[in-house]
Amino acid sequence: MTFGKTILHALLSLASALTLATAYPPLGWGNAVWFALVPLIFVFFELRGVRAMAYGWAAGFCFYLINLWWISHVTVVGTVILCAYLALYWGAWAWLTSWILERHPFSRSLPNIAVGLVAAAAWVVLEWVRGHLMTGFPWNPLAVALYEKYSFIQIARLFGTAGISFLVVFVNMILALTFRRFHEEIKVRRLRPHLDFSFAMLLVALTFAYGIRILLNPPPAGKTVSVAVVQGNIPQYVKWDAARFYHILDTYHRLTRLAAAMEPDIILWPESSTPGGFFDQEEIRASVTSLTADSRYTLIFGTDQEIRGRSHTGAMMIGPGMRWIETYQKMHLVPFGEFAPFSRYVPLMHWLVGYTRDYEPGDHPAVFTVPGSHLRVAPLICFEDVFPYLARQRAANGAELLVNLTNDAWFLQSVGPRQHLANAVFRAIETGRPLIRSANTGWSALVDSTGRVREEMTPFVEGFALMKVGLPAVPASTFYSRHGDVFVLFCALILLCGVLRKHYGRPDPL
After folding, report:
1. Is 378 in contact with 366 (CB distance < 8 Å)?
2. How far apart are CA 386 and CA 383, in angstroms?
3. Of the candidates 360, 355, 354, which has an alpha carbon nearest to the alpha carbon of residue 311?
């Protein structure tokens, strides 16, 4: 391998990382995702094994450093470690894809389609593993880059984000193989039909047509719910400052009184909006309950809870006249933020994360029943709206509306909150239910059941907004909400067949 080739491969890997990073917020050039991986795939035409894996890992590491650098507002070292870990999935995909491409007959359409299917399936399986291993970090799958391309993302109703990521990787593979085919055909001056490219474009066209059909045929409209979203914009560095205790209570008290004048059915406060646990401090309990003592609205808010000596963070619902109270304990906690992983075996972990007591996860996917209207509302706390299985649980339990209460103030005025919203829109599509978000600093927004952001508040400002949530007459039962990640299982079977065919088949693979 010459020095020039090494530089070329490094530049191609970097090109893929940079191009893919532009597809996500803040730039949000979503269509770049359709060709972003092509330069990296060119590297796999020439390299195999560990060397291909190294370039794949390097591309992934550069991508995640750009894509997730906003986490460095909390921890720089942790961000670098996280990016290095996430890049391992790119490395694994690079190793497998380069192996599948070894001795590949680039000039034939059917083998190209087969290779594209196996590579796309491998990416989907690795994304699924990333979303589950060590509590999971499913942030920003390839599908999220297209969160504003409504016609292309409706297939999440069928296959979740996995279906979109599969299509994106397949198109990237076929584009790279098509370039290689043209190069070889031009050398011999013989062009042949490119059925592989035509097949890829057919899948794109069918995906687009399905999306248009869904968008043009919305479900019959049912009732409309008026929801006032309160955005306190409390900086994280003052959130637990004892000197700001009454200032925080007054902020939410004042904004809620103003919002109540607009006669909403529900008022939402964000995650951990009270400066302490609702049941722990009399001042907090008195301030909150005074708002609902003579109200007609229902208040849903995030607060800490101490239950039988165990600390939880979660949500509470208090109905008009304080007659109806329901609670939810957050099920999926943030590692290193709400608990120290492996602290039972490594006591030093608590010292490293800076606190001595972990929150405990809840064990019940609560669905609140709003008094009076009997509307079924499902709370999702913090980044729980990034995990598809949690939204599916709520839909299966009869939820008509998903509510995300979050606090992204940790990340200051970075792109993190915008990316959070981009991930959240897919929970609405997958379940066929609208989703409304109350975020401490933003982005607070209303997302309809097709993933379109209907209303959003200006981030990083204090205020409230009245949002009219249109509910379907009958809550949708999407294929994905009923069957979950069955498409991932299908991809695992494709990958297994491809690997077995490559290992035991003829030297001319697939």
Report:
1. yes
2. 5
3. 360
Query: Could you write out the three-class secondary structure of 219-246?
Result: CCEEEEEEEEEEECCCCHHHHCCHHHHH
Short-list 60, 42, 57, 18, CA closest to 98: 42
Q: Which two tokens stand for residue 242?
A: 């004892």
> pLDDT grade, residue 510 (50/70/90)?
very low
Give one word for 306, left, alpha or beta, with left for phi > 0 and alpha for psi -120 to 50. beta
Closest CA to 457 of 172, 117, 139, 229: 229
35 vs 74: CA distance, rounded Å: 33
Give the C-alpha distances (Å, rounded to integers) separating 313 from 132, 197, 386: 21, 50, 17
Region for 320 from its dihedrals, namely left if φ exceeds 0, alpha if ψ lies in -120 to 50, beta otherwise: beta
State pLDDT tens for residues 328-349.
Answer: 988 877 776 666 565 565 665 5
Distance between CA atoms of 253 and 82, rounded to whole angstroms? 39
> What are residue 437's phi and psi, to 5 degrees?
-120, 135
Are 465 and 455 within 8 A, CB to CB?
yes
Q: How far is CA 95 from CA 102, 417, 497, 499, in A?
A: 11, 33, 17, 12
Residue partners of 225: CB distance under 8 A and separation at least 6: 265, 266, 373, 375, 401, 468, 469, 471
308-337 b/e (C-beta count within 10 Å ≥ 16 → b): eeebbbbbbbbbbebebebbbbbbbbbebb
Distance (Å, rounded) from C-alpha 235 to C-alpha 291?
24
Q: Which tokens is 433 given?
A: 């239910």
The distance from CA 147 to its chain's CA centroid, rounded to whole angstroms, is: 10
Is residue 215 classed exposed, middle or buried when 0-12, 13-18 and 19+ CB atoms within 10 A define those classes? middle
pTM (whole model) above 0.85: yes
CB 300 within 8 A of CB 377: yes
Q: Which of 19, 16, 28 is nearest to 97 (CA)?
A: 16
CA 13/CA 351 separation, integer angstroms? 38
Q: What tokens does 405 get?
A: 């209460």
Vertex 16: Cα angle to 15 and 21 (nearest 5): 100
pLDDT tens-digit series, residues 26-55: 999 999 999 999 999 999 999 989 999 999
Does 312 score more than 80 pLDDT?
no
* 204 CB neighbour count, 10 Å cutoff: 16
